Structures are given as structure tokens and as C-alpha cells.
Amino acid sequence: MRTSKTSNSSRVRNNLPPRPDPFVNREEEIPLFRDWLTAPTLSKRLLVIHGVGGVGKSALLRMFHLHCKSVRVPVALASGDEAKSAVEILSNWADDLKDDRVTLSSFSKTFKHYGAIQAKVDEKVRKMQEARGKVMEAESRDFAKTLIETAVSVIPGVGPLASMLGGIGAEAFVDWLSNFLSKPDVDLLLDPAKKLTAGFLADIVQVADKTRIVLMLDSYEQMSALDNWTSHLAQRLHPNVIFVIAGRTVPNWGEWHGWLAYAQVAELKPMSEENMRTLVRRYYATIRGGEPAPKQVEAIIAFSRGLPMVATSAVRLWTQYGVEDFQEVKTELVSDLVDRLLVGVPQEMWPGLEAASMLPWFNEESLRTFTGQADVSSVYNELRRFPFVRSRAEGLALHDAVREMIREYVRLHTEPQQYQTLLEHAIIYYRATIAKIEEYKGALDLSGEIDAREKTLRDALGDAAFELGLLYSKQDRWYDALRLLEESLAIRRQNDNLRTRADTIYQIARVHHLMGNLDKARIHYRDALRLYQHTENPQGVAACETGLGRLMIQMGFVDDAVRELDSAKRIYRQLGDNRRIAEVEEVLQVANHIKERQPA
Amino acid sequence: MSEADRIFDELTTTLSRWGLHEIPFSESASSLRQSQLRDVFTGRTQELREILTLFQGRERKRILVYGWVGIGKTAFILEVLSVLQRKAKDTLATYISLPPETDLATAALNALAREMEDDEWAQHQLNLMGLRPKKRPVHKTGKGKAGISSIGIEAEETTVPVAAPQFPTLSFEDLLERALKKYSRVVIAVDDLDKQDPARVRELLRNAQGMLKGGAWFMLTGHPSGLTRDILTRDLGLFDLAIELKPVDQPTTYRMLVNYLNSARPKNARRDPDDPLAVRPFTPETARVLCERSEGVPRWLNRLGSYVLLKAATIHADLITPDVLQQGLEYADQQLRGQTGLTPEDYYVLDLVLEKGTLSDATITLADMERLKVKEFSEILPIMEKLVQFDLLRRLPSERAAEYEPTPLLVGKQAERKQAEKTD
Known about the structure:
The complex is a heterodimer. Helix content of chain A is about 65%, strand content about 5%. Chain A is globular and about 85 Å long. In chain A, helix 12 (about 225-235) links the parallel strand 3 (about 215-220) and strand 4 (about 240-245). Chain A has a five-stranded parallel sheet with strand order 2-3-4-1-5. Chain A contains 28 helices and seven strands. Chain B has three domains: about 5-25 and about 250-335; about 45-245, P-loop containing nucleotide triphosphate hydrolases (Rossmann fold); about 345-425, Arc Repressor Mutant, subunit A (Orthogonal Bundle). Chain B has 18 helices and ten strands. A five-stranded parallel sheet of chain B has the order 2-5-6-1-7, sandwiched between helices. Chain B has a three-stranded antiparallel sheet with strand order 8-10-9. Chain B has a two-stranded antiparallel sheet with strand order 3-4. Classes of the chains: A alpha/beta, B alpha/beta.
């Protein structure tokens, strides 16, 4: 529950490109924002910007930030990368506004008091730790235990308390606090968001009566656990406040049905080639000076797939490691993309990158545990300088889009056994961290801070369990596979991504099919089929129909099988997937043989 | 005389006017005493012949008895065990309802140890599992049937989860060896596999392959879904005989009704099924309607019979006329829908099935599921299975789809059906 101590200006600096000059494109959003800043009254006051990872949302928000500064409109920016709780967001905003000479007296007073209470608790915990001595160090430390401790260590605020308070529950924790804190202080410690939000809103009213204010939230997809809080806040903000939200998805404010009436929603699409060309040239000029070779520019554009973040990362890495010789790349291959993106990255960096790709965030300790290397300081510091690595309260994190690419690359290029081990360790790590959070969230999580981290970890666990389940199924470890896939499904049911959910259900169907649980296989194939149809995923639909076709043959319903297989074949034809067509035809032949033998 | 005394006397008088000393119907065969079961067990001649023929042989066999919920699997195996106890003197017949979260070896060990009261090692095994012979500790979790009183049947009781022994298969084999020194044949009947997830049952069976192929006879009961022929008899080759129990025909159902009613009459007042008075307080007409409504499923006959008699007793009816029967059926409908343990989610699913007539993994739409706040049929499957256990839904015997419809115990369903027949 500790708030980030990083100062605001350094936060903004860390996430900014080295100089603002390279910014390109976004001709619609920037004028709109400028118009809003100067409009006498605001007919709409919510600007929601959404788009895929790496498309330039963060850069756009930072452009807005700079523009506000240039026209002297107070502006505040918080990002889901580093602010995981309402308290952290409010505190980051308050820091930012202080730079613009806006003082939030009521909020600051409560926040200061909240800090003092935290310090008091920290001191108590420290004393308890000292009293407990070094017993822990003498205990045996197997790998799982190390992972678990590492996991907890990267949760700010939870780590020391979790290890200290051992098995005591939430009620006992509150009792313990009551020994040295007053009831209002315990309440503030356990639910600081309520009082701090009220104070913040009241202070903002005073300022917004006189001047326009801009509040911004970036990486909103990492704050989905705070949907209720942000919706509550947005509804109560003064009408002279512009609230900008950027994320991969639009906020899910189901409780506030009419919010779209106050909002302008803009989707950032991948950049055109022309704009990418300009971006690459400007960015190159900014960090290296001069003009890049045209062939080099075209190669970057080809594999950046319209994502400016990928393009700037590529330029930075290539210039950083002195590699300038680009060949044409096949953009559809992720491995090729990463290969090119990380060309020249020294071999000794790879274990660190592999580990980083498995973790939503990492610090030196988790890198050390995952890589098994005693000294990871230099790797960690090197990673810090990578353009797609962001610093956050827990340490560092790869940008989501790049993390996914590197993870895919690792999956394809690492020895299967080694990749499996990485996944197994990651799963232990996720489960352990989630379990610790669960254990203490009754007492520590009323602000929602832990929920946001827990959700990120749960999603990561869902993905890793899916992948490992798939690996186990290929090794005929069916029961292990099923348990992991079911675990993944339970997690994926909690979020809105129906495609990944359908993928998990389809794999569960396959495992049941292989195990001979035909009833369950059929039900799951059909469940996956419905979701694939709903999300318009023809490959998924055809895969389910092929599975159902095989299944129906086994169950003796040959006509049903032929119907399913014919449909799958039609789809594979449309997709031009000859390998699959051949597979389906083979099964169809079997079905037709059986039909011929059946009595008329 | 208190109001309660008066009501009690009234009900007793009504029952005695009907010639009954109690309402004889029972939802579960395991709650009947052995003599009661013998009184009421009817039909299944062919199936009994098949299974008892096997018991004439020396080679031990593994038998699966499968059929839908309420079809009479428990009654069937208890009847077989009862015959063995009475007629095959050298046989030790044991019965257990598979407790939740328990593997087959532990269940078999438990069943066998209970029947070996004089064997210290058996008693030691029970103690290790936290159990005592005959008298189980008190128990709030899980529900099951266990133990064999005198020969094989004991009242239903709630059970605590059994603490699994460290090496259940080895412990069972040791105990079996000791039992086979005293008996020439040991029969272990493990009931209620159908109360578990079919995929888990399959896992249990795979894990127990060695034990099942050992020195004991095994009788298991299961559910058709998941325990289909390809899984059990072909793939694993675990079973020598798989007997499917299907709904009984109408004459058998009628005989069963007569038997139940006779079981609550004094011996000298029992009547032959051909006698119209044998079904009193039913008339032959209302008895036939009741049997038709039960569709040959013994548990449904018991449920309906019990509710109709309770209603008739409440309104002091001397005879169950069509009008009284209708009131009784409506009462059954109310009681079934109002059973404790049903959650709002269960009712939402039931309403959807009632609205659609039938619901299956093949026909359900995402829109249907949106109403239930789910996106997968798998998510409502446990609810459907629960509603089956509550006799509100039944699963239709199709392997093409997991297809469910309301049971005929619900009045609305019957009315809809009649309406549909008229329209046709």
C-alpha cells in the first residue's frame, strides 16, 4: 500500500522519448484536445483514447501533457504502469498539480497523516522483524520457497507485512493495529481511498471554479480493478475538469450508463507507412543525428506493423548496439520481428530477457531467482535502459506488446524442456504471490491497490497455465494438462476476452477427447464453437467442427460427423489452409467408409 | 388434548381408514430395511437372471450396473447382495456408497473392514481412517449411504470425508487376503459413482484397475453419461458385465405400487395386484394415472406416491379420486420446486428449461446463456445435474447431446405436453 516515491517530473521524463521532436501524426486528437482546453464551457469533458499496445497512446498523452504546460493549464498524469491504487493515482496527480502551483490542501493534509500512520506501522513491523531475528535465514530454502518469498518481495507494502505477520488473519491484523492506532487512523489505513478521494474532489472544486484542469490516466487496462472508483470519480469531477483516459480497451463503467453522453471516444489506429517513415527519420535524427539509410527505414517500417513503439524501440536498439545493417524481414513472423528488434543484444542479456518476458514486473531478486545467476545487477541495469522497459513501483516491466513478442520468441526458440521449466516456475511464482495477496487483502486491500496487482497476476497465471497445459497435453500428461487448463479457464472466465477463453475451452475439449471423455469433449467443443462464432474466428470454428466430426464418428453418429467436417472443410477452403483441408478430407474418407458399410 | 395431538390423531385415523400404518414410499432404496426392500422390489427379472447366473461360477467378476438417476440401481444391487447373503453362505457381501473425494480402494477397504468385525487388523484399518464399525461418527458434511446392517442395508446417514490410508490398495489387498481365508467369495458393491463427475469416475477407475482385477468380486453403479460402453467395456476392459437398467413397464410399475402399499398393511390385509382394492386409497384409475406419470422410474413413483398420499391425508380424503390426485400432483410440484438447497441460480436454469421445453449443449444459444450470466453450457451443467438429483429435470438418453427436460413430476410440464398432444 506504499505510494510511489518517484517524483512526477522524473516519472514523466522516464517515459518520454528523449526529445519531443519525433512526434508524428494524430491530426485529429491533438486539435480536439487543444479546442477543449480553450473552449469557454465543455459540452463533453471525458476523452477516452483506446488502441492496441504500442500504437502510441502513452506518447499522445505526453504530448497533451506538454501542450498543457505550454499554455499553462494545470495538468496531472498517472499511469497504470506505476499507480495501482486510487491512493497512488491521487498522489501522483497531486504531485503533478503541485508543479503547476496548484495546492490541494485538504488532500495533502490527509495524505500526510496517512503517510505518518504508514510510517508508524512500518516501524512496528521493523521492530517485530528484529525481534524475530535471523531464524529465517537458518531455515532451508528450496526453490519453491525462494520463489514464494521473491514473489512477495515485489509487492510494495505487502512483502514485509506478509513475511512478518505469518499466519494471522485479517481480524487479528486489525486487532494488532488497534493496539497502537486510534479507530479513525485504523480506518484511514485500511481504506484510505474514501477519505482521500473526497478531499481531492473538494480541493479540485476550489481550483476548477477559477481555471480549467486536465487529469489524465494512462495504461488504463492495468487499472480495470479500479473501474468503480474511476467511474465514481469521473461523475463527481467539476465540469471544468477534462478527464483523459488512455488504454487498450474502453472503461467498463456499467454502473454509470450515461457516461458516453459526456465522452469523446477515439481509437488510435496503427500508423500509416508515410507517418511511420517520418517518425523513424525524426527519431533517428533525435538520438543519432543525421539521416538513416532509406533501406534501413523501410525495413523498420515493414516489421513495425504500424506500431510506433516498436519502430522507436528498433531504432534505439539498433543504434545502441551499433547495428545498422537491416535486411527485409517477414513481418508476419513474430520471432523474426523480435529477432530483428533485438539483433545485437549480447548473449548474456538473454536469460534476463527470458525471465522478464515471463513476469508482469520484475526486480533484481526475481531476475536472480528465475535466471539462477548470482549477480544480475548489470543485466538489470542494462534492461532499465531498454526503450521498451518501463519502471514502475515494483521494479521494471517490459512494455506489454514487446513482452508478448519476446515471450512468443522464447517459446519458439528455447529448448522445450527449458521453456517448460520457465513456465512451471512462473506458475509457482504467480500462485504464491496471489495466495499471499489473498491472505492479506482483507486487511490491506480496501483501497483496491492489491486487487489491481492481483488481477494482473491472475491474468498472467491464466496465460501460463494455458501454455503449460498445452505442453503437458502433448506429453500425454492428460490429468495434469486438464487441471492447468481448468485453472486457466477459471481465470479467463473473469475477464472479457472471449477469444482466449474459447482457446482454453477448445484445448480442454481436445484433452477430454484424447482421454475418451466423449460427453465432456462434445460439450466443450460446442462451448468453444459458440464463442468462436461469436468472436468471428473462422480458424477456431473450423477446429471445433473438425473435433466434433472426429468425435461423432467415434460415437457412431456418422451423418452428424459428415455435416461438421463438411463445414470445417468449407472454412479451411476460404482460408486457403491446404494442410487442414487434407486432414479433414482424411477424416471424411473414414466417415464415408463407415457410411458405406452401414445398412441402408 | 393439544392441537398437535389432535392433528397427529387425525392423520393416523386417515391412514388407518386407508388400511395403512404409515406412508410407505421412500426416495431411496438405501433407507429401506432389508425386509422392506424384499417386500417392494419388483421386476428386473431378466437383469437379475443375468447377474445371478454369473454368481454360479467360480471365477470372480466385475459388474457394472448403470442407469439414470432414480432408476433403481441401489435397490437392484442391494437385492442381489441380499440374495447372496441368504443363499450363498460362503460369501461375504459388502456395500458402500462412494464417499465424496474418496478413491475406490479406500472405499472398498472401508466396506470390507466394516464387515469384518472380528478381525483386529480390519478394525485397526477403520480406526486409522477415523471410522468405527457399524457406528459412524456424527457428520455434517456430505451425504451418503454406508454399511450393511445384518446383511446389507442400513439407513441413509450423513458422513464425514474418509481419511484416506497411505496405501489403500495394498491395505485392501491385505485385508482381502484375510477375508478370503474365511470366505470363498468376497463381493464389494460400490454405489453412487454417478454422483461424481464422470471424468473423475473415469480417473478413479483407471487408478483402481489393479484392484478391480484382483481377487474380489466388484459391483459398481454408474451413470450412462461418461460411463458409456466405449469407456468401460471396450477401452479398459474392466467389466465382465455391464447391465443397463431402463424404466420399468407400466404393469411392473403398477405391481410396485401395490407392493409399496401392501408393505404398510398388516400381513393379513395385503392384497393381490389383480384386486382393485390392492391400490387403496387410490382407485385403479388414479393408480394407473400415477404409474403413467412416473414413466417407469421407481424414484418418481415413490416421490409422487408420497406427496399424493400426504396431500390426501391433509384434506382427509377417503379415496384418491382424480380430483384429489390432481391436488396431490400440484402439491408434489410445489414441494419439488420448494426443496431446500435450491439457489436463485438453480431457479433461473429451471425456468429456462421450462420455457424452452428441452435444453442441450447442441441447442442452447449465447443469448440463452446471457440470461443466466454465463457463456458456456459447461458452467450450467453442474446446476442441471443438481436439478436432476432434485427430480426437477431429467437427462434424456442421447449421446448426441447433453439434453435436459423437466421431469413429469412438474405439473406445468405435463400440462404443456397434453396441450402439445392436443395440438398434434
